[in-house]
């Protein structure tokens, strides 16, 4: 019999990492080894995570597909489901349905420079693709990461930022919004688009990936375009509200485009064709 | 056309109103809410005996409210809705010009809310004969029969919330059914979820309902849901002597304690 | 495989009786001011002399509450119990209107868009539709404007057309229909010659020309025609819930103590919470954008992505709208304006 498409896998919360105020990362492992064996995903895809009795919530898979046996997600405690998730402890059971959606075309990016630009809680989808590329480091030329948050405390994956900072094969530019810095802060101060403009990465043979709140995306695209990036070489992810994840519940569409099926990864060229309903 | 069009045109022309909420010709001989933003649209407004819908809920609707100042064509239901909204501080003097059309077909232009009160002072609110008939029928039933009646009606409810959206007093920015931490009212349109929703709504409206019956009119599956708040309004009138939507300085009966309140219903 | 037979007015109740010996039979039943599809045990219970039931027949394949699975929480974690598709009943729906039956094709397109939904598919497979052609219509009916007709056979397994004598012309359209005939073959009489079905059908005039509808509606996307709709539409879900095709849904958990179930519930693009992000951002911020989504989804996005329209012209949404948002009128206006 076909598998019930609404039935989640049961996953064990194997590890909880506190990232920032109200932001946590869960490492999830399949309870059923056979399900773990058959499961695969590609970077960029998302899933439905659930607490039984509270409901489902949609996040990207934040771990790279190069690391097998688990998936990770990072979420901020906001609504009913994320609050319930936040109340869980290591060893508890959650539901996981997925993977859904398209992926970052990392094979097409081979031999190119990569510029990753992320803001706030939008680093998770980026983290998946960053680690996937770093795990295949020789396939890509220069890798630069721009990451900003409101305050130093709001930066997520602090331990990994440190790791990227120390790697000679990664250029990391961190920034916090004006007023968000601490006396010890050594990074930049300013909004992400401003810092990108200041550092001015070359558009030559380069792919840019931008993830962040709508306002950051809207302000970063023009900067990249000014630096000479073509819209086809600028990627982002959309995060419209979803319930099913597979094109039926009717929520996430932007015009005729379904974020769950056609996305969540889009190029700036594709976004330009969409109505402003995201 | 009559005075209503001329007045609407004038209010728009002088800028006293940015939009006039009223009635227009609808599908196949029916009327529908209509919105005049210019002279051409003002000409299309109508008023006749078909215009029974309470339009007061449009006053706070998100797509209209920012256009204040508003003007609104009003029947008695709409007048009472506006007065109740004013007594709950949802409208203040100067937000709205009310064009009340009285029994004689005269348009009475109320710029101040107190002028609406004067119009209402001459009116004795009455519920529709068919509603009265059904209420009497329900009153004559045993509690068990009445329960069975409502349970059977609730089975048809699809939780489309037309009742809430049509109600001039359901203006909460977050309705109790939308609160999910905790989930007070089950989301599913099953019998218990439907019952909890309609009882909650009726209780929230008790002492506030202006008896327009709009919730029942709006129901796509013909549940006489308006009878619940209307019956409660009747009870409140009998116990406390208050009628909602007649005076601005009217307190919220059920949440106001008065030393001389009757206590004979406390068992 | 269409085969034409005759079913006399005396045989019709016998057929219902025969079917109900082995399967649950449903049909339009009158209850106070309401006509809805209900379980029946005899043909006497069927409502007569009405245009169309208040609710569509979609709930047979897409009920307002669909259990997706259940779960039990205990100290060791959570146990999950999958649903058993074998429990989905075999049912026969008698008297479904041709528009409702035709709507099944659009629903199927939605639910079988990869990945196919086994719950929906099983419900559809196990439901037999004995349609009844319309011999009356009202001003809100506009099936003929969208390629349908009061005698359309699409979606029905058998279509009955009542003739002036009260007897029925029975078109046997599918193998499911054949199975019904084999339950009581004697009730179906062979016929000779043309029974002139069209003579007994309601007249539903065309209200607009649909030839370039998709392009015209696309052209309207950024026009101010939606401003008036934004003001008038009050944002309830009545239109979506009475619609035979609207299939947008919500997923919720319903728990009692340690046990519960995850359910799929009807939802509607007209509701402001439908697309609201937890951040407070709403991609379809105004009621105008939400009404536009309703029209675009049915007449542009579905034709583009699923090759079917999301509307069969039953007119329910317009009949039932508390503020007279008349969909055929809107379409007509968009066609004229663009």
Give a structural overview.
The complex is a heterotrimer of chains A (278), B (267) and C (338). Chain A is α/β, with parallel strands linked by helices and 278 residues long. Chain A is 22% helix and 31% strand. The mean pLDDT of chain A is 95. In chain B, strands 2-1-3-4-5 form a 5-stranded mixed beta sheet, with helices on both faces. Chain B folds into 2 domains: 3-121; 129-255, no CATH class. Chain B is globular. The longest helix of chain B has 15 residues, at 191-205. Chain B has helices spanning 3-14, 39-43, 76-87, 113-121, 129-139, 143-154, 162-166, 191-205, 214-218, 227-240; strands spanning 19-25, 31-36, 70-74, 96-101, 107-110. Chain B starts with a helix and ends in a 27-residue tail after the last helix. Chain C is of the alpha+beta class. Chain C has 10 helices and 12 strands. In chain C, strands 3-2-6-7-8-9-1-10 form an 8-stranded mixed beta sheet. A 4-stranded antiparallel beta sheet of chain C has the order 5-4-12-11, with no helix packed on it. The longest helix of chain C is centred in the C-terminal third of the chain and has 20 residues, at 287-306. The chains are: A alpha/beta (278), B alpha/beta (267), C alpha+beta (338). Chains A and C meet through strand 13 of A and strand 4, strand 5, strand 11, strand 12 and helix 8 of C.
Brief characterization of the structure:
The complex is a heterotrimer of chains A (278), B (267) and C (338). With 267 residues, chain B is an alpha/beta fold.
Total DSSP E strands of chain B: 5
Q: Nearest-angstrom radius of gyration of chain B?
A: 19 Å
Whole-number mean pLDDT of chain A: 95
The stretches of 5 or more residues of chain A where confidence is low (pLDDT under 50) are none
Query: How many β-strand stretches of chain A?
Result: 15
* Biggest sheet overview of chain B: 5 strands, mixed
What string gives the helices and strands of chain A in order? EEHEEEHEEHEHEEHEHEEEEH
What is the number of helical segments of chain B per DSSP (H or I, 4+ residues)?
10
CATH class wording of the largest domain in chain A: Alpha Beta
Average pLDDT metric of chain B: 93
Tally of separate helices of chain A: 7
| Beta strand % of chain B | 5-15%
Percent range for helical residues of chain B?
Answer: 25-40%
* Proper CATH architecture of the largest domain in chain A: 3-Layer(aba) Sandwich
In helices, the fraction of residues of chain A equals: 10-25%
> Largest interface here, residues on each chain?
A-C, 42 and 51 residues
Cα(first) to Cα(last) distance of chain A is: 37 Å
For the largest beta-sheet of chain A, the strand count, sense and barrel status come to: 7 strands, mixed
If you compute it from the alpha carbons, what radius of gyration of chain A comes out, rounded to the nearest whole angstrom? Answer: 18 Å
């Amino acid at each position: 019999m076909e598998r019930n498409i609404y039935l989640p896998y049961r996953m064990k919360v194997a590890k909880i990492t506190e990232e920032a105020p109200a932001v946590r990362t869960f490492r999830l492992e399949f309870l059923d080894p056979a399900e773990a064996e058959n499961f695969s995903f590609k970077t960029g895809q998302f899933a439905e995570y659930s607490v039984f009795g509270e409901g489902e919530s949609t996040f990207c898979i934040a771990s790279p597909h190069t690391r097998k046996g688990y998936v990770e997600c990072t979420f901020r405690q906001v609504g009913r489901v994320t609050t319930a998730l936040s109340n869980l402890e290591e060893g508890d059971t959650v539901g996981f349905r997925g993977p859904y959606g398209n992926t970052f075309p990392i094979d097409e990016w081979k031999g190119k420079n990569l510029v990753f630009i992320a803001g706030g809680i939008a680093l998770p989808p980026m983290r998946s693709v960053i680690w996937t590329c770093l795990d295949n480091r020789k396939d890509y030329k220069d890798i630069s990461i721009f990451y900003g948050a409101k305050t130093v405390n709001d930066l997520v994956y602090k331990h990994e930022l440190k790791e990227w900072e120390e790697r000679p094969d990664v250029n990391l530019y961190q920034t916090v919004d004006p007023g968000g810095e601490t006396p010890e802060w050594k990074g930049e101060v300013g909004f992400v688009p401003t810092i990108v403009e200041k550092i001015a990465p070359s558009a030559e043979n380069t792919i840019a990936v931008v993830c962040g709140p709508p306002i950051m995306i809207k302000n970063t695209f023009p900067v990249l375009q000014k630096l000479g990036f073509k819209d086809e070489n600028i990627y982002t992810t959309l995060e419209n509200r979803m319930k099913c994840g597979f094109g039926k519940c009717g929520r996430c569409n932007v015009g005729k485009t379904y974020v769950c099926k056609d996305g969540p990864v889009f190029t700036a060229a594709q976004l330009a064709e969409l109505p402003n309903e995201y | 056309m009559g005075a209503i069009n001329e007045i609407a045109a004038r209010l728009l022309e002088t800028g006293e109103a940015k939009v006039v909420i009223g009635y227009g010709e609808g599908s196949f001989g029916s009327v529908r809410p209509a919105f005049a933003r210019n002279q051409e649209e003002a000409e299309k407004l109508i008023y006749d005996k078909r215009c029974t819908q309470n339009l007061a809920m449009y006053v706070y609707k998100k797509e209209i409210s920012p256009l204040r100042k508003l003007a609104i064509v009003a029947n008695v239901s709409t007048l009472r809705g506006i007065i109740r909204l004013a007594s709950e501080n949802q409208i203040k003097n100067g937000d709205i010009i009310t064009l009340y059309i009285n029994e004689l077909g005269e348009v009475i232009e109320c710029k101040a809310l107190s002028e609406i009160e004067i119009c209402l002072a001459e009116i004795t609110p009455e519920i529709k004969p068919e509603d009265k008939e059904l209420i009497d029928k329900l009153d004559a039933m045993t509690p068990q029969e009445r329960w069975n009646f409502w349970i059977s009606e609730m089975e048809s409810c699809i939780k489309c919330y037309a009742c809430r959206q049509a109600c001039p007093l359901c203006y909460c920015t977050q309705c109790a059914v939308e609160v999910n931490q905790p989930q007070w009212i089950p989301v599913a349109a099953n019998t218990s979820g439907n019952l909890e929703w309609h009882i909650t709504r009726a209780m929230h409206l008790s002492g506030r309902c202006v008896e327009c019956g709009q919730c029942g009119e709006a129901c796509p599956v013909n549940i006489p849901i308006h009878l619940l708040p209307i019956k409660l309004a009747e009870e409140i009138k009998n116990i406390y002597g208050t009628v909602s939507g007649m005076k601005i300085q009217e307190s919220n009966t059920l949440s106001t304690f008065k030393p001389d309140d009757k206590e004979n219903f406390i068992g | 495989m269409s085969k034409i037979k005759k079913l006399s007015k005396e045989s019709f109740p016998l057929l219902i009786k025969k079917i109900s010996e082995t399967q649950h039979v449903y049909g339009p039943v009158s209850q106070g001011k309401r006509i809805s599809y209900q379980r029946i045990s005899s043909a006497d219970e069927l409502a007569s002399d009405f245009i169309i039931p208040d609710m569509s027949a979609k709930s047979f394949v897409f009920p307002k509450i669909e259990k997706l699975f259940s779960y039990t929480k205990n100290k060791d974690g959570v146990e999950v119990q999958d649903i058993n598709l074998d429990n989905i009943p075999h049912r026969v729906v008698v008297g479904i209107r041709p528009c409702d039956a035709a709507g099944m094709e659009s629903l199927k397109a939605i639910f079988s868009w990869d990945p196919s939904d086994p719950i929906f598919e099983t419900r559809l497979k196990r439901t037999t539709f004995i349609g009844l052609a319309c011999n009356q219509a009202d001003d809100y009916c506009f099936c003929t404007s969208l390629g349908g007709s009061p005698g359309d056979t699409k979606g029905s397994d058998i279509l009955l057309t009542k003739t002036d004598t009260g007897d029925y012309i029975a078109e046997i359209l599918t193998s499911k229909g054949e199975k019904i005939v084999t339950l009581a073959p004697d009730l179906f009489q062979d016929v000779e010659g043309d029974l002139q079905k069209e003579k007994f059908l309601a007249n539903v005039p065309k209200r607009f020309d649909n030839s370039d509808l998709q392009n015209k509606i696309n052209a309207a996307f950024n026009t101010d025609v939606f401003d008036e709709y934004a003001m008038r539409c009050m944002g309830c879900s009545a239109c979506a819930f009475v619609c035979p095709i609207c299939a947008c849904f919500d997923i919720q958990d319903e728990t009692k103590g340690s046990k519960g179930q995850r359910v799929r519930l009807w939802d509607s693009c007209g509701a402001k919470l439908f697309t609201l992000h937890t951040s407070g951002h709403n991609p379809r911020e105004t009621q105008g954008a939400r009404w536009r989504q309703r029209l675009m989804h049915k007449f542009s996005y579905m034709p583009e992505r699923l090759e079917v329209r999301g509307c069969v012209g039953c007119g329910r949404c317009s009949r039932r709208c508390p503020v007279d948002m008349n969909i055929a009128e809107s379409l007509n206006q968009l066609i004229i304006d663009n």
